[in-house]
Amino acid sequence: MELIDIGSNLTHESFQQDFDAVLARAQAAGVNRQVITGTSIAASEAAIHLHHLYPARLFATAGVHPHHAADLDATALQQLEHLAASPAVVAIGECGLDYYRNFAPREAQRAAFERQLELAARVGKPVFLHQRDAHADFIAILREHHAGLKDAVAHCFTGQAQELDDYLSLGIAIGITGWICDERRGEHLKQIVGRIPATRLMIETDAPYLLPRSLRPKPPGRRNEPAFLVEVARVLAEARGESVETCAAATTATAQVFFGLS
Fold it and tell me: How many CB atoms lie within 10 A of CB 18?
């Protein structure tokens, strides 16, 4: 099986000591390509750097996470626009709204989100979206801007059926993580993922976060890594009533088209 991890944070410090081994384990598991998430100007630059080191395997997004929304001033926006033009960058984001932690004022979050949607429309690249406890404002902003967007994916979808319906009504793709492997928090996802069209469904680890709790044997420590995407595919396929091979082929094909990967 070939898999594409559409959201890994390989620039995270937890990967510094064994980066090559992490990549090797991913490839051995069939995770041959990854999209490295840009969450700030610095993280986006680091993701682009990884692409230059591994141009056939690692690709970048460029964006400012809502936690850092207050940092997206005119200068930072100009820097982001420059990064967005790089061929290494296959999507704009991670961008959106996070009212769960509110690390940035909500007004600043909404402004930064809109600026990045406008940027995505200008450069003609899809957006990589983040939303937590902010669905009403999030979907309202998307409805205002979606006509100008090339495409969009709801990264790490954990919502309920109504949120899923709202996203699908706008044609937004859905990214499923190891959240679906969590018997405490993810059981509801198993009931609704069958409603997602195969052409709108992708998978991701969000490594080093969201280690799949269903992994057996359990790995030492709590760090997630791209090789564990196989477990996300297995649980997702079971929930959809299809083989893991079918799920892998479909999500890989969708990711290739969505991000323009060769």
Answer: 13
Tokens matching residue 204: 């991701």
Count of CB atoms within 10 A of residue 215's CB?
A: 17
Amino acid letter, 247: C
When pLDDT is averaged across residues 223-251 and rounded to a whole number, the result is 98
Question: What's the helix, strand, coil split of the chain in %, to 5?
Answer: 50, 15, 35
- pLDDT tens-digit readout, 190-227: 999 999 999 999 999 999 999 999 999 999 899 999 99
CATH of domain 3-259: 3.20.20.140
Strand 201-203 relative to strand 152-154, pairing: unpaired
List the structure tokens of 38: 């840009």
Q: Which of 62, 19, 78 is nearest to 259 (CA)?
A: 62
Q: Is 136 helix (H, G, I), strand (E, B) or coil?
A: helix
Contact (Cβ atoms closer than 8 angstroms) between residue 30 and residue 57? no
* CA-based nearest residue to 115, from 48, 45, 64: 64
> What are the CB-based long-range contacts (under 8 Å, 24+) for 237-242?
239/180, 239/189, 239/190, 239/191, 239/193, 239/194, 240/193, 240/194, 241/194
Give pLDDT, residue 225.
Answer: 98
CA distance 205 to 40: 19
Task: Tell me the three state secondary structure of residue 12.
Answer: coil
d(CA 233, CA 251): 9
Structure token pair of residue 26: 């991913």
